[in-house]
TrEMBL record:
Residues 32-205 form the Exonuclease domain. This is 3'-5' exonuclease. Pfam families: RNase_T. One of its GO terms (biological process) is DNA metabolic process. CDD domains: DEDDh. It comes from Marinobacterium nitratireducens. GO terms for molecular function: 3'-5' exonuclease activity; nucleic acid binding. InterPro entries: Ribonucl_H, RNaseH-like_sf, RNaseH_sf. The keyword Membrane does not apply. GO terms for cellular component: cytosol.
Amino acid sequence: MIIPRSIRRFKERLDQRDGNYAWLFEPYQGDELVSLDCETTGLDVRQAEIISIGAVKIRGKRVLTSERLDIRLKPPASLTGDSIKIHKIRAADLADGIEMDDALDQLLAFIGNRPILGYYVNFDVRMLDKYMRPRFGFGLPNKTVELSHVYHDIIKWKSVGGSVDLRFDTIASKLDVPIIERHTALGDAITVALMYVRLKHGEAPV
């Protein structure tokens, strides 16, 4: 049986209320978000594995590129030619990668209980939860913000009777935001952060 994420998060919060990570489940009170992206060996959460994680903080109107996370993991067995064609990351590029447990520790320390922003962010969260639950007993409890939804809600009134193109490259082009190192975790995280700031604090896209 598939348990809805909201119910699972409620149970995990109760389970962790007296634990070392109880603070992660507290409502965030600041003005920061963390733009997050994971590069994986595939799009099937059950079979894919994470090869890199990128994240950058956003504070108000600023993307804090000096406060970023750029993690490469040890090459998994599922790193094949098909996935390499997309993200251009080879096993040799991950020779100095770290173990997933170390990556998760770094990630939790960096994100804290801030909201997580991403492009199809639910996929990244589900991928990370797959590793987090066996390790910590809970998945990421953070609120999530989906960039494509923010974009759609802002421009939908201009597309009455038509569809809104939500492709990554299209959104970046419409917002006049440069795409930074596409299909790298940190590059995509920074690009998404720039698009979000443009949407929230710039002029409405045409």
